[in-house]
Amino acid sequence: QVQLVESGGGLVQAGDSLRLSCAVSGRSLSTYVMGWFRQAPGKEREFLAAVSWNVANTRYADAAEGRFTISRDSAAKMVYLQMDSLRPEDSAVYYCAAGVIRLWVQARQQEKYTNWGQGTQVTVGS
After folding, report:
1. 56, pLDDT greater than 90
2. Strand runs labelled E in 1-126
């Protein structure tokens, strides 16, 4: 069983950067895809980025491309989301997720992720 614990959220100003961390526990992680999602009040949870644990392939949603960077440290069992040039519309609860996803094209689909963290709040002031 994979367990995930996010940290690093907080209150920042527009244009600032923030790095979210996700501590991963569990075994056989090489078969997993790790993802970051977010959910703003009144909106559906949306995909941001994914990284494969074994070879660190990445993919991004349009909203994250160019500003957000996902990475993983397999030795430390950590997954990161570096967020730059933050905007007020980036304010949301950010979630780390894990799933055994065999088709890389499915990495955007939240229903493919079976393990979720508790979330960390990011608030971007204008």
Report:
1. no
2. 3-7, 10-13, 18-25, 33-39, 46-52, 58-60, 68-73, 78-83, 92-99, 115-116, 120-125
